[in-house]
């Protein structure tokens, strides 16, 4: 599954890890993240993420 | 005014004595926009100033060197208080190359016509030799904009830390040991609470990286340079980065006809009697900047508002909205307020504090029109509850709560 990088703080969302602290199970693809999910590091919204090449 | 950091490294910025409103931040002690000039085999300017003060910056540079001899202009942060003068500076320094990271180049291009500028892009780990001294670059994204960067001079153990460790503090002194330490720390705390707090996770990561550097001087973009109290300011940042709570209770309120004010006074009385620091703050006689600063290290908050049109009073709402954006963590709280026929004031405060993930200690305390003796007794008891919780949190986190990062 594709990794996505935060444009603001460079945090990388890795589906293999998920975001358990915020209720996102490992194995959740970026597309399946809820619309109100925000970067766990700097707080920007999902539309500020770019597919990591 | 002593402006020399070390041999051939000088402050060339601007002291803004009279500014009192910095995009809404109340700058009671004014501000400075710090820029620094390093003269070596090559000459480098570190950052610029706010646009209206470009001439003063250029005069300061001309007092030290021929502007044609400036080889590099390092931009650690594209925000207009530091890069606002960039267009004039690049024009006045004909042989200078702009040095910044990729995101900064893009941001500067959106603020200015950068088409004629020579630019050298750097990333974390890159270095630039000036001769006897070297510039090392460390990107610090979201401390506090995406393009933010530190520049380090290993030969001098000197860190140009941009907005981190800064203070809005106009003085005729440039160093921490030339002013009252408590004033510099107070302004550093105000700056942290109002500018840096939302990015505390990034600050913790940045502090970890900074700990690996050998530092004898920290030169921020605002306020005094730290050279004698580095331990104190770095330790304070460690505490602020986790909002480490003190045994302190804030009673923050707005009131229409005095009923919510009476409840606030009773909560404050209850907390004061329990032996903690208790502060009573009326949002209309205080301001956003001061309130955010008090919230930073408070353990507990009681937030009250009368009901107006089924909502909180507008100034109370403004404070809650401001705090929500700043994301203070690890607080315990309760809401209170009076109402006439329909509720809304205390409920709005309760909802907004829940949205900040603060621990809510009890349901809102309400009074219809005026608090009777029973409600005031409930308020005093709530004050005691807040005080007990504040003591518990302060002693627990001192021992090292999970959110805390030791500097």
Walk me through this protein's architecture.
The complex is a heterodimer of chains A (53) and B (407). Chain A has 53 residues and is mainly beta. Chain A is 0% helix and 15% strand. In chain A, strand 1 and strand 2 form a beta hairpin. The radius of gyration of chain A is 10 Å and the shape is globular. Chain B folds into 2 domains: 4-241, Metallo-beta-lactamase, Chain A (4-Layer Sandwich); 246-399, 3-Layer(aba) Sandwich (Rossmann fold). Chain B is 35% helix and 25% strand. In chain B, helix 8 packs across helix 12 (373-398). Chain B is elongated, with a radius of gyration of 24 Å.
How many alpha or pi helices of chain B?
Answer: 12
> Structural class, judged by helices and strands of chain A?
mainly beta
How many structural domains are formed by the residues of chain B?
Answer: 2
Distance between the termini of chain B: 33 Å
Summarize the largest interface: chains and residue counts: A-B, 8 and 8 residues
- Largest beta-sheet details of chain B: 7 strands, mixed
- The tally of beta strands of chain B, per DSSP, is 24
Question: Strand share of the residues of chain B?
Answer: 15-25%
Cα gyration radius of chain B (Å): 24 Å
Q: Into which percent range does the helicity of residues of chain B fall? A: 25-40%
CATH architecture name of the largest domain in chain B:
4-Layer Sandwich
Report the portion of residues of chain A in β strands.
Answer: 15-25%
Q: What's the short story on this structure?
A:
The complex is a heterodimer of chains A (53) and B (407). Chain A has 53 residues and is mostly beta strands. Chain A is 0% helix and 15% strand.
């Amino acid at each position: 599954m594709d990794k996505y990088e935060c444009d603001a703080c460079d945090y990388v969302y890795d589906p293999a890890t998920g975001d358990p602290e915020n209720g996102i199970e490992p194995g959740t693809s970026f597309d399946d993240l809820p619309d109100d999910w925000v970067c766990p590091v700097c707080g920007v919204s999902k539309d500020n993420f770019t597919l990591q090449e | 005014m002593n402006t020399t950091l070390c041999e051939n490294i000088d402050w060339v910025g601007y002291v803004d004595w009279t500014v009192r409103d910095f995009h809404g931040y109340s700058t009671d002690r004014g501000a400075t926009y710090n820029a620094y000039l390093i003269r070596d085999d090559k000459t480098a300017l570190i950052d610029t100033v706010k646009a209206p003060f470009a001439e003063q910056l250029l005069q300061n540079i001309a007092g030290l060197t021929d502007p044609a001899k400036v080889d590099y202009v390092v931009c650690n942060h594209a925000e207009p208080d530091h890069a606002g003068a960039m267009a004039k500076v690049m024009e006045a320094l004909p042989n200078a190359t702009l040095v910044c990271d990729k995101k900064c180049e893009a941001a500067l291009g959106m603020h200015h016509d950068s088409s004629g500028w020579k630019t050298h892009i750097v990333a974390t780990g890159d270095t630039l030799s000036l001769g006897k001294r070297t510039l090392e670059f460390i990107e610090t994204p979201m401390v506090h904009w995406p393009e933010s960067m530190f520049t380090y001079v290993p030969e001098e153990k000197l860190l140009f830390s941009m907005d981190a460790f800064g203070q809005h503090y106009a003085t005729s002194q440039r160093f921490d040991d030339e002013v009252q330490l408590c004033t510099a720390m107070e302004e550093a705390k105000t700056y942290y609470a109002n500018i840096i707090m939302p990015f505390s996770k990034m600050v913790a990561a940045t502090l970890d990286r900074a700990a690996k550097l050998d530092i004898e001087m920290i030169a921020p973009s605002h306020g005094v340079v730290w050279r004698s109290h580095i331990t104190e300011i770095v330790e304070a940042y460690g505490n602020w980065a986790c909002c480490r709570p003190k045994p302190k209770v804030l009673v923050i309120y707005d009131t229409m006809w005095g009923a919510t004010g009476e409840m606030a006074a009773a909560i404050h009385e209850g907390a004061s009697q329990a032996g903690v620091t208790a502060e009573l703050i009326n949002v209309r006689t205080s301001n956003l900047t001061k309130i955010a600063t008090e919230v930073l290290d408070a353990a507990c908050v009681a937030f009250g508002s009368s009901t107006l049109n089924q909502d909180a009073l507008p100034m109370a709402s403004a404070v809650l909205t401001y705090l929500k954006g700043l994301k203070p963590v690890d607080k315990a709280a309760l809401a209170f307020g009076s109402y006439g026929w329909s509720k809304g004031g205390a409920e709005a405060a309760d909802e907004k504090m829940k949205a900040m993930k603060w621990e809510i200690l009890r349901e809102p305390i309400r009074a219809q029109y005026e608090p009777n003796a029973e409600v005031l007794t409930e308020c005093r008891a709530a004050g005691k509850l807040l005080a007990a919780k504040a003591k518990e949190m302060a002693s627990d986190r001192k021992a090292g709560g999970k959110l805390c990062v030791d500097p």
